Amino acid sequence: MFSIYLLGFIFYAPWRRKCISCACDDYPGQYQPVGETDTEDTDDGEYSSRNSLSESIYVPAKIPSASERESCSDSEKCKSPIQGNHVKFNHLMEVKHLEDTDEAQIARMNYAAALRAKFLSKVKRGNLTLPQVIRISFIFTAIFFLGNVAYQEALAVAEVAVVNILSSTSGIFTLILAAMFPADPIDKMTLSKFLAVLVSFGGVVLVTLGAEDSDPEKLVTSDNVVSGAMWSLLGAFCYALYLVFLKKSVGPEGQLSVPMFFGFVGLFSFSLLWPGMVALHYLSIEKFQLPDKYPAIVLVINGLIGTVISELLWLWGCMATTSLIGTMSLSLTLPLSILVDIIFRKAHYSWLFYVGVGPVFLAFIIVAYLSHRNPKNDPVWTCVKKCFCCCCRKKKKECRNEQEIPLTQFNHDSET
């Protein structure tokens, strides 16, 4: 169903331009009159002199001396409209050089070449090209598909509580992978982020146990708990791997067209993974049959709202913020869905649910705050260092007080 987004190549003009092989016919503003200014790219006509020129350098000016001017005053070669006797020259001249930057190279070009260079530099720093989006979609189709299959398999063989608890470990996987392969300096692991992820995990555990009607001891003694736990951990790891490396592939300055990315993910899933359905059918692992009318309608509605639209909004948020915030937002779906049950279905849950909702939301807010500040300023680590320093100072003072012997006592001991 993700292939629906590929209709953008029919109805959306910027996507159609990406398909044109000759980019020379596709530069915006190429056919503008020379007198018009491109308000989108330049603020004013002095951008090259402000941003591309180096600082001023003053060097001695080559000015002929008075004797040289007198000697060549009668010569025809030295004649000029402005006579040297009436002009006062400065002994220093100001020199500026064009720096070796993209703006400086554009400033040296003519008008048409400068428009092409501006467009190419915008494409390079901004939206990814069509071949780049296709390549990224092809690589991440398998990871995205495996993560979804693992989650569905976990729900099929294990309790919902076990799946929800273990799926929330994707925040820990994301924190570790983002620290190992950072796409931005703010992805650095800090003690505050780690504690916030643990708080969120603990809140998910309380929410899940509070929402379950079964006995918690039954969850541990279930026959399928091992396979369900393995599928849940695999799905959580695939989601973290998919998100972290997608951010890494796009880069901090790149802008991925998320609808186009999902469109090609759907195309590759439909065209490359359908042989798996045939293999499962003939191996009698899962028989293929067409659904009835009502299940088909439910599948289509759930696919459009629960997958096509929700995944698009979620990945948009991840690209706009960080991979850790995107992963932590998935933990909010569990308490929010149960809150909807409480409001509309008048369901009743134990006190563990209400205790666990607070840490889940609080951890998400803390991670969102920490992800938009300097990772060197870690509040928890700063408090730990201050407490450690205070303890060290107290111990040093106690050691000094024990080592110092009063002078009167020393004299009394010596006399005795």
TrEMBL record:
It is a multi-pass membrane protein. Residues 1-17 form the signal peptide. It is found in: Membrane. Keywords: Membrane, Signal, Transmembrane, Transmembrane helix. The chain crosses the membrane at residues 133-151, 157-179, 191-209, 229-246, 258-282, 294-317, 324-345, 351-370. InterPro entries: EmrE-like (IPR037185). SUPFAM superfamilies: Multidrug resistance efflux transporter EmrE (SSF103481). Its main location: membrane. Belongs to the SLC35F solute transporter family. Putative solute transporter. This is Solute carrier family 35 member F5.
